[in-house]
Amino acid sequence: MDKKVIKYLAWGIGLLVLPLILQQFGNAWVRIADLTLLYIMLALGLNIVVGYAGLLDLGYVAFYAVGAFGYALLASPHLTENFPAIAAMFPQGLHISIWWAMPLALLLAAVTGVILGIPVLKLRGDYLAIVTLGFGEIIRIFMNNLDQPLNITNGPKGIANVDPVHMFGVDFSKPHNLFGLEIPSVTLYFYLIVVLMLLTVFICYRLQDSRIGRGWMAIREDEVAAKAMGINTRNMKLLAFGMGASFGGVCGVMFGAFQGFVSPESFSLMESIMIVSMVVLGGLGHIPGVILGAILLAALPEVLRYVAGPLQELTGGRLDAAILRQLLIASAMIVVMLLRPRGIWPSPEHGKSLVRKS
Amino acid sequence: MEILLQQIINGLVLGSMYALIALGYTMVYGIIQLINFAHGEVLMFGALISWTCVGYMQEHMTYLPGWAMLLISMLIACVLAAVLNFCVEKVAYKRLRNSPRLAPLITAIGMSLFLQTVAMMIWKPTYKPYPALLPVDPYFIGGAVITPTQILILSITVVSLALMVYVVGYTRLGRAMRATAESPSVASLMGVKPDMVISATFVIGAILAAIAGVMWAANYGTAFHTMGFLPGLKAFTAAVFGGIGNLAGAVIGGVLLGLIEAIGSGYIGDLTGGVLGSQYTDIFAFIVLIIILTLRPSGLLGERVADRA
C-alpha cells in the first residue's frame, strides 16, 4: 500500500480511538479535546486572514460570537419567551435544525466579516489590528447590553437551554450504546467536530495552493506589486475577511450547541488575542504549525488545571490553578517568541514578508 | 448647560489621564514601531504600589498630611514602574528588534498577561479601596463641580506635558530620541546609542504611566489588577487618533477622546430616547477610532507612518 494511505489511515484510527481512550479517564478530558478541536478550527480560520493575506485581525472572536449567538437565538426558548409575537408564530418554540443553522451562521459571519472589511481596507499592519480590536469590543459591548429595551441577547446573563445538535436521528446530548460500548455525549461531539476540523484543514490546504491563496500571499508579500500584477486587492482582502469569518461562525454554532449556554463572557478580547497567539506561536501561515499552536495553547492550560492542585498546596494557596495557568501561558508566549520569533513550526518557504524590510 | 459644563470638566480630567498614558505609547511606537500592550500594566503597577505605600504611611506615619502621602507614594511608584518597564524592554522586546513584526506584539501581549498575573499574586485579585488623601470638598464653576483631586490631575498633566515638550524638543536626549525614531542606523552613525535611547523612552513612558495610574486610583477611589487594560487600550486609541509617533497628537487625541467620551455618555440617553444608556460609554472610543482611521488613516496630526505596513 502507498505510504501516504497508511499515514492517513493511522491518523484516522488515532482520531477515532482517541476520545474512547480519553473517556476512560473521565468526560472532562474528552471535553478538553473537544474544545481544543474548536480552537484548531478557529485558529485555522484566522490563519486565512493573518497568515495568508497578512491582515492582522484582533477582533476575530466577534465572528465566533456572531455564530454562537445566532444559533443560540434560533435554537433556544429565549426569543419565544421574550417576544409574544414570535411565540405566536412558533408555538412549539424556535428549534432550528443544525442543517439550517450551519449555513446560516456561515453566511451571517461572512457578511459581518465583509462589512468589517469594507471600512478598514485601506489600513495596514498595526492600524488594522487596533481597528479590528475596537470592532470586536463594540460587538462585545452590544452583546453585553442588548437586554434593554428589547431583550435580545439577555445581557451578561447569557442565553441558556440552547438545543444540542440533532443529526441523522441522533441526539448528541444523550449517551448512546454502540456494540456494547458506552459513547457519552462529549465523545459524539468529538467526532462531529473532528469531521468539521478535517474539512477545515482540507479547505485550507486547497486554498493555499489555489489562485486565491497565491493572490493572498502576493498581497501579504507586497501589496503594491500584487496590485500591479492585476490582482484585485480589494476583493481579495474582503474575500479573506469573509472566509476567515465564516469559519469563526461555524465554530460559534458548534460552541453554542456543545455548551448549551452562550454568554458575552466567552467572547472577550482575551479570547481573540489567544487565537492570534495560537496562529503566531505555531507558525504563521503554516497549517501544521497553526494546529500545533492551537493544541498547545488550548489544551495545555486545561491539563495544567488538573496538575496545579499540589502546587497550590505547596505555595500555601498563593499560586492557585487559575493563576498558575495564566502565568505559564504568558511565559510560554514570551519564551517561545524570544527563542523562535517565526513560531514553533514555521512554514519552510513562505513568510518572507515577515522579515522586516528596513 | 450645567450638565455640559460638568461633562466638559470630567472629559478634560479623563482626557488628561489618557494623554499621559498615550504619551508613553506614542513615544515607544514612534521609535520601535511596537504596540506596547504591557503599558497599561505599568499603570496598574504604579497604582497598586502607591496603594501599598499609602497604606503603610497611614499606619506608621500619621503625622504626614494627605497630599504628602500622595506625592511620596507617587514618587516611589514612578521609580519602581521605571525599573519595571526598563526590565520589560530588556527581557521581552530587545532581542526581537529585527524579528518578524508579529513576534514582539505577541511577547507584549504575553508580558501584559504576565504582569497581571504577578500583580494578582502580590496583591490578590480583589478591588482595593484607594483612600481619599486630598480634601473632598468640591469647588464650583458655574454650577459644575470640580474636586481638588481633579484639579491636581489637570495641573500634574500640564506640568508633565510641558516637561515632555522640553525634554523631547530641547535636550540632547530628545534630539537623540527624534533621530532614533527617524532611523536608528543613521542615528547610531551620529554617535547616538539607540539601545540607550530606547531604554530612556521606556523609562519616561513608565513614569508618565505611573503618574496616570496613581491619579486614576485617587480619582476613582479604587485599584485592582486588571485596571490597566481599558485605560491602556483607550490611550492607544488616543495615540492613533492624534497620529501615532507624534507627541502633540497624543495629547490632543487623549483630551479629545476624554471629551468625546464624557459628553457622549452624558447625552447618549437623551439622543437615542433612552434606548442606549451610559453603559455604552466604552464604544465611543472605538467608533471614533474607526471613523478617524477611515477618513484620515494617519491620525489627526500624523504624517510619517501613514504608509508603514
TrEMBL record, chain A:
It is a multi-pass membrane protein. It is found in: Cell membrane. One of its GO terms (molecular function) is ATP binding. It comes from the Bacteria. The chain crosses the membrane at residues 5-22, 28-50, 57-76, 96-118, 125-143, 188-207, 238-261, 273-300. Keywords: ATP-binding, Cell membrane, Membrane, Nucleotide-binding, Transmembrane, Transmembrane helix. GO terms for cellular component: plasma membrane. PANTHER family: HIGH-AFFINITY BRANCHED-CHAIN AMINO ACID TRANSPORT PROTEIN BRAE, HIGH-AFFINITY BRANCHED-CHAIN AMINO ACID TRANSPORT SYSTEM PERMEASE. This is ABC transporter ATP-binding protein.
From TrEMBL, chain B:
It is found in: Cell membrane. It is a multi-pass membrane protein. GO terms for cellular component: plasma membrane. Keywords: Amino-acid transport, Cell inner membrane, Cell membrane, Membrane, Transmembrane, Transmembrane helix, Transport. CDD domains: TM_PBP1_LivH_like. InterPro entries: ABC_transp_permease, BCAA_transport_permease. The chain crosses the membrane at residues 12-35, 64-88, 100-123, 143-168, 197-218, 238-259, 271-295. It comes from the Bacteria. GO terms for biological process: D-alanine transmembrane transport; L-alanine transport; L-isoleucine import across plasma membrane. GO terms for molecular function: L-isoleucine transmembrane transporter activity; L-leucine transmembrane transporter activity; L-phenylalanine transmembrane transporter activity; L-valine transmembrane transporter activity. Belongs to the binding-protein-dependent transport system permease family. LivHM subfamily. This is Branched-chain amino acid ABC transporter permease. It comes from Comamonas flocculans.
